[in-house]
Amino acid sequence: MLIGIDASRAVTARPTGTEVYSQRLIQALLSLDGSHRFRLYLRSTPPTGTFPSADLRVIPFPRLWTHLRLSWEMARRPPDALFVPAHVLPLVHPRASLVTVHDLGYLHFPKAHPWRQRLYLDLSTRWNACAAAHLLADSEATKADLVARYSTPPEKITVVYPGHDETLVPVRDPATVEAVKARYGITGDYFLYLGTLQPRKNLSRLIAAFATLQPETLKPGTVLALAGKRGWLYKDLFAQVRRLGLEGHVLFPGYVPDEDKAALLSGALAFVFPSLYEGFGLPVLEAQTCGCPVITSATSSLPEVAGDAALLVDPGDTAAIAAQMQRVATDSALRAALAERGFANVRRFSWVACARSVLSIIEQSVV
Question: In 107, 173, 218, 298, which residue has its Cα 20 to 30 A from 121's Cα atom?
Fold first, then answer.
């Protein structure tokens, strides 16, 4: 069987969650033993070795790549099945077409998205739910949203959990951790957020919670590091920090490349991720993989992902976020327990297991 995959979101210089999902899942699919052939459709040539053993179809196009250029490719040389892991199904597609839907947060928190993005997400998700032969959901929370919001038949949706990054390992060498911290202007203890700076991540409440921490219970110089690329309305966060007089106490280190991620996570007091809504939440697994205690939201998919290895909070309750930050910062035994439970929790998630499940669903769709 020839399986086509839209890999256009799998190659980017600074990947975020959906791009990481796309790349890691495609690589895991290619690693499986089997008789199937894979053809990847891309807008530009990926770095050498990114997708070994795959038939790469690089088809540049300036605008509307999916619905015009990829549709034309589907019409001329259709594969037996098409899988779209992180985007929208083209207008022309094989009958056996599958799409991963990552989240419907734009419906729960519409004000956390620009209106144009919100409209596009709604229209594209409706199209995917209608046109695809089968949908994959990252979590039971996303499946429930698809059923409730778009009346998608439950039997048309399969929950397949993404994997965790097995290349990440805890960094035990203090000198290495200190060197990476220094690169980002961090000199002492720190709470860490890692992700895009945007309203849906609830960072304004995280900053407000940090402002209320009792300084006498923390080591001098303890900071909050909000690392990640700048997204929508990021300037509001800078203004909030200035307004609260927290310059030098709340840091914005910027995008963190993969080679620095493990050290930053390994050295943090806690990874604080009070997102308003997540379809899955890969950063939680990244933190747990590195032995970093996690504080995250008790809503959407995050309890599914974090398991019993995180402190869960109401993301709308600033005082609750602050209380858990205070607790984890002052209780070394709790930090150690959360780290150990985190190591156990991440073993539930594997890219190979994810790929096997996806491949099985594709096979069942081609009859």
Answer: 298
